[in-house]
Amino acid sequence: MPKLKTKSGAKKRFGRTATGKIKVAHSQKRHLLINKDKQAKRKARGTKTLEKGDANLVLTYMPYLRG
Length: 67
What we know:
With about 70 residues, the protein is of the alpha+beta class. It is built from 3 helices and 3 strands; from the N terminus they run αββαβα. It has a single domain (about 10-65), classed as Factor Xa Inhibitor (Irregular), CATH 4.10.410. The chain has helices at about 10-15, 40-45, 50-60; strands at about 15, 20-25, 45-50. The radius of gyration is 15 Å and the shape is elongated.
């Protein structure tokens, strides 16, 4: 079998937790932060885990994260 390719954009944005869930950084935290309120910036810290439907879509982009 040939090797399967991973989408290069996906491997930069998504990771796996120890329990097997997909983790991703929060959005809206790159630029124009002066216009956003403190609460929005504070809630966007760290990472979050994706819901099951979104995680299944991400796993189609990353074949070696599935196993």
